[in-house]
């Protein structure tokens, strides 16, 4: 007997219709609503019922079949696959409030207002796919040798040239190490520095994953407040002068947005050189600063080679490529090479060579220019929409996010979880603070994933959610 499907599609959220259909049917199967052997509508019939293209339903059915949740035959049609309950093991869920629960929530999506994810409509995906396909074929036909643990020379050369032009960093390709994104670069740097048991300055508020990485490396964290000039160097020197590591986002502080002032940059570098302190520069925005020209990198002022510069292609190309880079001081090149070879090899050559060609042919810089224009327009539209509801004073625009400030005590984390039911995934500001004692409440709305259509409707839904917790 054919079971009725009560699928509800929401065309206002940034989730493909095929994915909504797949999730709905999978949930019905896993929840026991659709039992093994239950017959499903043909993809033609379901497409007519839902008012979508046939290919949309067919795509969903193909993914369900690949997951062995359904099976199709000419004789019996499409049915729920036989899955003995005694053999079905539920996926263990991370503990409530744990880091892995927060991490799982971060990687869900795609969703509206999600941070750290680039807009798909601005990226020349067809061009990059063609370049990457050529690189994959070249990799498959190459001799089966172990690749360079530092990364492909072509990409290291392109990155060194890019950094010289756009970030003011003069470095050799031998100083550039290719990594699997920012996190891999941070892990590589911490492995090389070997600062277990020492104190590290971290921005407060600051990137939660960086803090967790330092904790895993067994460093003692000293939260340093951030003001309009960036991390407060005077506070750090007064309260934690014995630190041996500083992790900063000087270009545009994450998440509040100020650029580290020149006076503080020079003072930080002078103190680091005099006291043998290492500085890790997280250049998380790189060239994607939307107000004026990006400030030169902190590493461009470093004459004593105390700064380790880490960048990523996650926000400019895609987080799926898992590609980043690190610029090592000359005296540490050998140690970085040894550690990379033994503990932290880069991604495969194909994605590196494709990215190198993408940069060499000028596509990367053109893509950045187009993306900045698109993001600036999106940010202004989002600012206008929010300010029309709450006024100018409660809204700010740090980096690639718009910050909606909430009244003290408002549970921003609960609001975020409720908003996820509507396909929205803003980031709770309180989670960026080291401690909840002095954490401010707010929502960070990603600009790149802000909708170009139905923006007012999305904002209205967000404010409805906020009002339920106010």
What does this structure look like?
There is one protein chain. Helix 10 links the parallel strand 7 and strand 8 (278-282). 40% of the residues are buried. Strands 3-10-9-8-7-4-5-6 form an eight-stranded mixed beta sheet, with helices on both faces. The chain has a four-stranded antiparallel beta sheet with strand order 11-12-14-13, covered by helices on one side. It has a two-stranded antiparallel ribbon with strand order 1-2. The chain contains 15 helices and 14 strands. The mean pLDDT is 91. The chain has 470 residues and is of the alpha/beta class. It starts with 16 loop residues before the first helix and ends with a helix. Helix 2 (43-50) packs across helix 3, helix 5 (125-141) crosses helix 12 and helix 7 (182-193) packs across helix 11. It folds into three domains: 17-87, Arc Repressor Mutant, subunit A (Orthogonal Bundle), CATH 1.10.10.10; 99-116 and 365-469, Aspartate Aminotransferase, domain 1 (Alpha-Beta Complex), CATH 3.90.1150; 142-361, Type I PLP-dependent aspartate aminotransferase-like (Major domain) (Aspartate Aminotransferase, domain 2, 3-Layer(aba) Sandwich). The protein is globular and about 75 Å long.
Helices and strands in order, then pairings?
Blueprint: H1 17-30, H2 43-50, H3 54-66, E1 70-73, E2 77-80, H4 99-107, H5 125-141, H6 153-166, E3 176-179, H7 182-193, E4 199-204, H8 208-216, E5 220-227, E6 230-231, H9 233-239, E7 245-248, H10 262-275, E8 278-282, E9 307-312, E10 324-327, H11 333-342, H12 349-360, H13 363-390, E11 395-396, E12 401-405, H14 412-419, E13 427-428, E14 442-446, H15 455-469
Parallel strand pairs: 4-5, 4-7, 7-8, 8-9
Antiparallel strand pairs: 1-2, 3-10, 5-6, 9-10, 11-12, 12-14, 13-14
Helix pairs in contact: 1-3, 2-3, 5-12, 6-12, 7-8, 7-11, 14-15
């Amino acid at each position: 007997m054919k079971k009725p499907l009560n699928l509800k599609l929401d065309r206002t959220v940034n989730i493909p219709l095929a994915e909504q259909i797949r999730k709905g049917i999978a949930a019905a199967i896993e929840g026991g609503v659709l039992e093994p052997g239950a017959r499903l509508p043909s993809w033609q019939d379901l497409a007519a019922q839902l008012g979508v293209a046939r290919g949309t339903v067919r795509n969903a059915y193909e993914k369900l079949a690949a997951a062995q949740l359904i099976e199709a035959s000419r004789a019996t049609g499409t049915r729920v696959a036989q899955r003995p309950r005694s053999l079905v093991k539920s996926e263990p869920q991370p503990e409530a409030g744990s880091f892995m629960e927060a991490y799982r929530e971060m990687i869900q999506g795609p969703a509206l207002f999600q941070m750290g994810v680039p807009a798909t409509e601005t990226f020349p995906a067809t061009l990059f796919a063609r370049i990457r396909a050529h690189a994959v074929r070249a990799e498959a036909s190459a001799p089966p040798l172990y690749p360079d643990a530092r990364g492909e020379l072509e990409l290291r050369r392109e990155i060194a040239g890019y950094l010289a032009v756009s970030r003011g960093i003069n470095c050799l390709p031998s100083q550039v190490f290719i990594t699997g994104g920012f996190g891999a670069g941070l892990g590589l740097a911490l492995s090389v520095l070997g600062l277990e048991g020492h104190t590290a300055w971290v921005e407060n508020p600051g990137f939660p994953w960086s803090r967790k990485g330092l904790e895993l490396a067994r460093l003692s964290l000293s939260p340093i407040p951030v003001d309009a000039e960036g991390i407060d160097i005077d506070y750090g020197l007064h309260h934690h002068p014995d630190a041996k590591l500083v992790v900063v986002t000087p270009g545009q502080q994450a998440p509040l947005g100020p650029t580290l002032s020149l006076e503080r940059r020079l003072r930080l570098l002078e103190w680091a050189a005099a006291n043998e302190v290492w500085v890790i520069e997280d250049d998380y925005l790189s060239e994607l600063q939307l107000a004026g020209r990006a400030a030169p990198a902190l590493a461009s002022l470093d004459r004593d080679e105390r700064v380790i510069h880490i960048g990523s292609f996650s926000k400019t190309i895609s987080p799926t490529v898992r590609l980043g880079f690190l610029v090592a001081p000359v005296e540490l090149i050998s140690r970085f090479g040894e550690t990379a070879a033994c503990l932290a090899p880069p991604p495969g050559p194909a994605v590196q060579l494709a990215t190198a060609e993408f940069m060499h042919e000028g596509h990367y810089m053109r893509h950045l220019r187009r993306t900045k224009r698109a993001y600036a327009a999106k940010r202004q539209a989002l600012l206008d929409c929010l300010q029309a509801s709450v006024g100018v004073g409660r809204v700010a625009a740090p980096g690639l996010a718009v910050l909606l400030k909430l009244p003290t005590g408002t549970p921003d984390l609960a609001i975020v979880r409720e908003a996820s039911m509507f396909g929205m995934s803003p980031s709770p500001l309180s989670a960026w603070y080291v401690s909840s004692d002095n954490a401010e409440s707010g929502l960070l709305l990603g600009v790149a994933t802000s909708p170009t259509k139905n923006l007012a409707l999305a904002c209205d839904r967000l404010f409805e959610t906020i009002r339920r917790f106010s």
